[in-house]
Give the backbone structure.
Amino acid sequence: MRYVMSRLPRVSALLAITLAWAAVPATGAPHPARPNVLLIVLDDARPETAAALPATTRWLRDGTSYPQTVAATPSCGPSRATLLSGRYAHNHGVRRQADIGGFDHTRTLQQTLHDSGYRTAAVGKLYNDWPLDRTPPGFDRSALTGGGYDGAQFVVDGVRTRARYSTSFIGAQARRYLDEFERDDDKPWLLYLGFTAPHAPYTPQPRYAGRTFPGGADPSADEADRADKPAYVRKHHTTRAEGEAVRTGQLRTLLSVDDAIEGVRARLARTGELRDTLVVLVSDNGKQWGEHGLGEKFMPYGPSYRVPLRLWWPGHVAPGTDPRPASTVDVTPTVLAALGITPGYRPDGLNLRGADRHRWLLLEYWRDSHNGGFPTWSSRYLPGRAQYTEYRDARDRRTDREYYDLRADPWQLTNLLRGERDRTPDTRADAAALAAGRGCAGAACP
Ligand SMILES: [Ca+2]
Ligand SMILES: [Ca+2]
Ligand SMILES: [Ca+2]
């Protein structure tokens, strides 16, 4: 019964969503003072990487976790634009890494909070292809990097510098901004905390370089028959062993992230801000650890698009697990609803803490020369049930299609549109829903 919403007629579902949206500002008790917002964004972390974040997990344990969360567009730059705007890439326009120049910075979490009296700062990796010496609109302060670990370059409020180790630098800079905020103690703040970990090149701190971790890639890392998959998949040959090396490298870098986050938590406790801070932990996309013979992300498979999402705010966000489908597009609307702030625009995502729910999850990706030759695709994803994917060429003509019955085949081993005829599902409803979803806006989004 978890997906009862998807069985309702479309009009009723839209009406329910509209009513829930209208009701949002009234759902929480009025806040005597607005809380701070700490938005922690990991880079390429799938949900399983929580194994390398013990202190962070302990801290956020009495918040809400959303195990069915996707990155609406599993690619760094587009995904961050989605996280910070609450809009799908087909609306915010950052479809490819280099598109950030066309981003509407006024329709963002940071601009909305800034306009509501928040002090705002961004630390670490934010957008791709953004000039680091320019503080992005909506932020008062910024200490940005393009990525990397040892000797990574940062620009701290216009001053160029190099970090000995990026993760430690990001943690220290976050604490500096928190100290600065503390001097203006009455004002709430937004701190965007974007780690470069666990993105390639997975350089660990020496003290974590020998650590190993039990577990590994999912069973699709040994997919023997990929004849059901589109041709581009079969051009890749990432082995389970190669995927395992990437996984270990990622988890080692996250041990340093755990230390940095613990340092931020301790500083919040010391300045008396801990209980007045809404914390969000999320990743911009996942990572293939050899599943289907693939590395990277950018593909319509679980390891690429599934991401961790946790919310924490003692006394306001209930402890527990929310199994409802969630997306990166929901982060900004959920934060703003928790704060009782109505943005000056209509996001595409929804308030995850409201009555409202996704009928299905829209996933979209556009071919990007920065990312290699992965094709353009979009999916209709029903977690635990099914995923329907269409690939498109440069002229927007449909090329390949995939359909996975996730109840029988959770690892996406058998594309039912490339198998025996008698098992071919009827995908007309999926295709129609996806066609509408690809152009959706606001409450009309699935
Ligand atoms: Ca990423
Ligand atoms: Ca204080
Ligand atoms: Ca197969």
